[in-house]
Write a structure and sequence with these properties.
By secondary structure, this protein is an alpha/beta fold. 47% of the residues lie in helices and 16% in strands. The protein has a 7-stranded parallel beta sheet with strand order 3-2-1-4-5-6-7, sandwiched between helices. A 6-stranded parallel beta sheet has the order 10-9-8-11-12-13, sandwiched between helices. Strand 9, helix 12 and strand 10 form a beta-alpha-beta unit. The longest helix is centred in the C-terminal third of the chain and has 18 residues.
Length: 378
């Protein structure tokens, strides 16, 4: 009999992880059907997209309030789908608040729930772990320290491995990318990675561009490149880039790892990409900014020292973080210059990034997750 799986992936990284799982599952079992919320990558994997998550990918409490009606419409649509077209298994990928509410509905309907990519309950509001445990059948975690956290709370959990160890690799050689992106191989390339959400482009990209201006003042020969996330369109970048005609910026729609391998250093928004850059072994610094109200509230709730995933996994600050009011263009530029010119500092950072790679474990996370899905379907 055909088994039906509903997936809820709310952001670009979740869309990519979920698509890789779907592709792995299709190789193991060709009688599965997939439908739900996702974007470009899940669409390419032939999932029936009910909601395009690009429309509701936001971060920050204030930002969620602004888009609240749109998010609730999407949630209600997914809830109705659970009621009227119930799956054999619901797979929730990250996007914690939305997916927690969806899990509540699924649990009430007697639908099995598998949560993939743990909400960061270990970072703030840790008491939520018990609420999560009541509405899911299994938590599949991708960071090694998360397994014990859930075990201690008596929540069914399995460490499946980090999917990034499988996914984080280019599919083109470096020389081909330099040619395709019209970059000069003899000149230094700085990556500007502002994130995958529209709000991040509005808040983070201007800081990165101002830092680029400071960098060019010290090193006029620098080249810059910006990858366009699968959930975004080129047009959203144009108003920002048009303000800086003096910058030599390439805007690229391609696999982010192809772009990363061309970079000597990267200014990156906080998020999954900080781990991807670490796995590629590229020195970087982290920038981030959310609304003042969101920051004011979250600052008092978060209990961990760092916000960058690369630093959280390392359990120390190996990559500098420039967050909120500390995200000053000159400071960011100075850090990038140091990663380029201070050989000892650069080598030390690369070695620490390799240690993070070792902590994330070996490849095989996607197949482990696919096998867990089949196990739950049986």
């Amino acid at each position: 009999m055909t088994k039906r799986i509903m997936i809820s992936a709310g952001e670009a990284s979740g869309d990519m992880h979920a698509a890789n799982i779907v592709n792995a599952l299709n190789k193991m079992n060709d009688s599965l059907e997939f439908y739900g919320m996702g974007s470009t990558n899940l669409r390419k994997a032939n999932m029936d997209i009910i909601i395009d998550c690009a429309d509701i990918a936001v971060v920050g409490l204030f930002e969620v309030l602004i888009h609240y009606r749109k998010i609730m419409r999407a949630l209600n649509t997914m809830r109705e789908m659970l009621r009227n077209n119930p799956p054999d298994l619901l797979i929730l990928v990250d996007y914690q608040e939305f997916n927690f509410k969806l899990a509540q509905t699924a649990k009430a309907l007697g639908i099995k729930v598998l949560f993939y990519v743990s909400p960061q309950v270990w970072a703030w509001r840790q008491h939520r772990v018990h609420k999560i445990g009541k509405v899911i059948d299994m938590m599949a975690v991708i960071l090694p320290f998360e397994e014990k956290f859930y075990q201690d709370a008596n929540v069914p959990v399995r460490f499946v491995g980090n999917p990034l160890t499988d996914e984080t690799r280019p599919n083109k050689d470096k020389a081909s990318c330099f040619s395709e992106y019209e970059l000069d191989e003899n000149k230094t390339v700085i990556g500007l990675f502002p994130g995958s959400r529209r709000g991040e482009i509005q808040r983070v990209l201007p800081i990165q561009l101002e830092a680029a201006v400071k960098l060019v003042a010290q090193k006029p020969e620098l080249q810059f490149i910006i990858p366009i996330a699968s959930t975004l369109d080129r047009e959203i970048f144009i108003p920002h880039l048009s303000k800086y005609p003096q910058l030599n910026i390439k805007l690229v729609k391609d696999l982010p790892y192809n772009v990363m391998q061309c970079c000597d250093s990267i200014i990156i928004a906080s998020g999954t990409a900080t781990l991807e850059v670490a796995l590629m072994g590229i020195p970087s610094c982290i920038t981030y900014r959310i609304s003042p109200l969101s920051y004011f509230i979250l600052k008092r709730m978060v209990t961990i020292e760092h916000i960058g995933l690369v630093n959280i996994v390392a359990e120390r600050g190996i990559v500098k973080e420039f967050i909120q009011h500390e995200a000053q263009p000159q400071d960011i530029a100075d850090e990038i210059i140091r990663t380029l010119d201070d050989g000892e500092y650069r080598i030390k950072m690369v070695n620490e990034l390799n240690a993070v790679k070792d902590k994330l474990g070996k490849t095989g996370g996607i197949d482990n997750m696919a096998e867990l899905v089949l196990e739950m379907l049986e």
